[in-house]
Design goal:
159 residues, two-stranded antiparallel ribbon, single chain
Length: 159
């Protein structure tokens, strides 16, 4: 384990309210995917609204925008969950439930191991990425930085 963990924050603008019939399939997949994340190697933490199993009620960037916010031990651990698990099927179908974002909708940044960032910090990091592009303080899988601030463009190795 290193002295840093990777925080990730992403937003999704809903095509319709979560209780609409068109969102039923997405909502039925939410608990299983969250449970998969919780049990994935390298998972550290995810935002959960008090009294709920998810954070769909937390709306810091708009009433029609839901967020996902988590911390992982490494880039590889997050990558494996996002692109090498059942999460990928949900990701592939995101246009059924969410509008296409013109700008950045996901941001990554390093935090000290054991630190849980705030929602306000996450929103600030996303805005930083949108306003200034990738940097050691706010980056993407494609334009990635090491904890030391060194650019690293290559994707994680494929198994």
């Amino acid at each position: 384990m290193t002295g840093h963990h990777l925080a990730q924050f992403n937003v999704g603008t809903l095509n319709e309210p979560l209780d609409a019939p068109g969102m039923a399939e997405f909502m039925s997949r939410l608990d299983p995917i969250n449970a998969l994340a919780d049990g994935s190697p390298g998972f550290v933490w995810r935002l959960v609204e008090e009294g709920a199993n998810d954070a769909t009620g937390v709306r810091p960037v708009g009433d029609d925008v839901i967020i996902n916010f988590s911390v992982w031990e490494s880039r590889e651990a997050l990558w494996d969950f996002v692109y090498r698990s059942a999460h990928l099927e949900v990701l592939r179908r995101r246009r059924e439930w969410f509008r296409r974002h013109v700008g950045a909708y996901q941001v990554l940044w390093w935090v000290p191991a054991g630190y849980i960032p705030t929602v306000e910090e996450a929103v600030e990091r996303l805005e930083l990425l949108r306003g200034r592009g990738p940097s050691p303080r706010a980056f993407t899988f494609r334009d990635f930085y090491t904890p030391e601030g060194v650019p690293e463009r290559a994707q994680p190795a494929r198994a």
